[in-house]
Amino acid sequence: MQIASQLSSLNALSPLDGRYASRGDSLRGLLSEAGFMAHRVEVEVAWLVGLSEAGLPELAPFSPAARQRLRALVDDFSEADAARIKEIERVTNHDVKAVEYWLKERVAGDPELERAAEFIHFACTSEDINNTSHALMLSRARERAVVPRLRELHAKLAEMAQAYAGQPMLSRTHGQPASPTTVGKEFANVAARLGRAIDAIEKVEPLAKLNGATGNYNAHLAAYPEIDWPAFSAGVLRGLGLTQNAHTIQIEPHDWMAALFDAIARANVIVLDLDRDVWGYIALGYFKQRLKEGEVGSSTMPHKVNPIDFENSEGNIGLANATLRHLSEKLPVSRWQRDLTDSTVLRNLGVALGYCLVAYDACLRGLNKLELNAPAVDADIDACWEVLAEPVQTVMRRYGLPQPYEQLKALTRGKGITEQALREFVAGLDLPAEPKARLLAMTPRSYVGLAVSLAKSLQV
To answer: For residue 100, what pLDDT is reported?
Structure first.
């Protein structure tokens, strides 16, 4: 077999760069190798501009024109620029040093910026640039891709909660018939959970550090002992929209990243729970799936319309959470002041979040195909009069009738019961007229408690 060495969607090792490549487009400019380089350039430029404003005798403030030229290096960073950095890295065998040398190449020939060339990467360790870049990358991926996609999914669930708020549905606890609910209330339950999970993702505060080789500003103070370096570094980070972690080793310890990945994984578990439940409701016939022209459900069984979107979502959430949880458990652990095990792992941020987006898209696509099969939902609940054993025995308790639970258990447990049998039982109870009439008028469909109002009261 001859497989071309030139990367394409057909020979990519990862489906994120092959079959699902389009799903990750919103992440590519942020979490790819080129995206990482672009963010490093942004951090190096921010640090250099900050130094120019610090009053250093050897570095005058940049003119507006020079600042604009530096800004253009960030705004106009291209794939060709990334390729040139990779060329330099093949010589340096050091990715951050390659960015520094590229910046020096780009300012060469500009008298004002060339004079400042040795202040590029001044007193920084590679991790100063990397951890700050990762904080920007993850913050932007969260704001521009992960949360918007989750909000879209949340909005669809809220819409379904309202649309189906009044449709009675047989509940199942332990797989057995249980007190009825409504279809909309079940979607409201998931929407409420997912809304809280999204809030938790958004509340994680990104941290970063620009404090040197072991977190103590050693080189900074050696060169300029009069500068308040912690305050200066905090200011540069604040300008990038980040919060300073004042106490670190060579690396920012990644605890905030772990909190973010845990929060995303928790949201993913909610989506997975939804995938499995909807899969089950499709199997029960509660929902039909809108057909797509030309689509095949089985290679041998022409009748099948499989719940493939929910299965796809579930599988990709498994991959996402496996990676997220490894990141969460591994990144906060470093031998002494620094080891490199975090570096290679952090190159998989796009893998973790990419599988999240594939899963969210699949779930949303599946939800958009659903059509409620109300007759099937109604038929299921109409056949379960035994669920009214609960309200009958509860009313019996109120009025002091003997052994209410035991009587209903003998009547209903482990066997179906007809409407007639239940009504005859209620009619024979020594109850006041009003509660007896209420029980006799009750049906499985009417016994939904506050499900309708709870579904409609969902806050979005």
So the answer is: 98
The beta strands (E) that lie in 302-416 are given as 370-372
What is the dotted CATH code of the domain comprising 134-220+248-379?
1.20.200.10
Token couple for 201: 């993702």
* Residue boundaries of the structural domains of the chain: 21-124, 134-220+248-379, 385-443
Q: Reply yes or no on domain 385-443 having CATH 3.40.50.300.
A: no
Q: What is the mean pLDDT of residues 95-121?
A: 97
Confidence of residue 299 (pLDDT cuts 50, 70, 90): very low
Return the pLDDT at 2.
60
Helices 95-107 and 33-52: crossing angle in degrees, nearest 10, is 60
Q: Which fold has domain 21-124?
A: Fumarase C; Chain B, domain 1 (1.10.275)
First-to-last alpha carbon distance for the chain, in angstroms, is 54
Other C-beta atoms lying within 10 Å of the C-beta of residue 425: 18
Catalytic residues: 174, 298
**Would you say the C-alpha torsion 33, 208, 223, 339 has a positive or negative sign?**
negative
Q: What angle do CA 359, 207, 191 make, to 5 degrees?
A: 35
